[in-house]
Write a structure and sequence with these properties.
40% of the residues lie in helices and 20% in strands. By secondary structure, the chain is an alpha/beta fold. Helix 5 links the parallel strand 1 and strand 2. Helix 4 packs across helix 5. 40% of the residues are buried. The mean pLDDT is 91.
Length: 227
């Protein structure tokens, strides 16, 4: 199992704003107030731990210049974990619930200020040759957070997609699965608790990921886009 750089773990702890249970409470209140809770359980908030997310992402071997996308990014923890542990060029998340998106923006503000200031200092100390490395702590991806419908998010230019899809209903998941068909060949998909049934995707692995609020692990299915 790949071990994240100690500085990346401490940086993540410093920019994380709320616990999983706090995020779940926020999601439930907003979903109830808007009537969404009566139609679907898709609002349910779940998340895996920082080390588990880093391990799952390392399985798909991200490369420099690639783009990561989290469909249903919540408070942005998976996006931040991707940015702090992998050599992506861009890490993007899309979230429908405004309360969770606002928390994610707070984390992003900290990432853009405190975290990048530390990185620039480390780069200056390390020298040009070392600082050009593709891994943390010298490469700092651009992070983008979108408030909107995950089904409207374009797959153009996306290389790795992640989604904590445990409580996605059949209609939502099927629509997302169809959306993933637009990914280019060679793209990778990580889905928590849900599996794809499509000839264009090859199942290449499954890892158990530790959640932040319980000792129970969830299955994460890893796919490779064939064509």
């Amino acid at each position: 199992m790949a071990t994240p750089h100690p500085l990346s773990r401490s940086a993540f702890a410093s920019i994380r704003r709320v616990s999983r249970d706090q995020a779940l409470d926020m999601a439930e209140r907003e979903a109830t107030a808007t009537g969404w809770a009566k139609k679907s359980d898709a609002w349910f908030y779940g998340e895996v731990g920082f080390d588990a997310m880093a391990h799952a992402l390392s399985r798909v071997k991200p490369k420099r210049k690639e783009t990561f996308l989290d469909l249903g990014s919540g408070t942005g923890n998976a996006v931040m974990a991707a940015a702090l542990t992998q050599p992506f060029e861009v890490c993007r998340g899309v979230e429908r619930l405004s309360s969770l998106h606002e928390i994610a923006l707070q984390s992003l503000a900290s990432y853009e200020s405190d975290t990048k200031r530390v990185i620039r200092s480390l780069q200056a100390e390390a020298g040009e040759d070392v600082a050009s490395a593709e891994t943390w702590p010298f490469h700092v991806p651009k992070v983008e957070l979108v408030h909107g419908d995950l089904l409207r998010e374009s797959m153009e230019g996306v290389d790795v997609v992640y989604s904590f899809a445990t409580c996605f209903g059949r209609e939502l998941f099927n629509a997302m699965a169809w959306q993933l068909e637009a990914l280019r060949p060679g793209a990778r998909v990580l889905l928590v608790s849900k599996s794809l049934v499509s000839p264009s995707f090859e199942l290449v692995g499954c890892v158990g990921l530790q959640q932040t609020h319980t000792e129970a692990a969830v299955d994460c299915y890893i796919y490779h886009k064939r064509y």
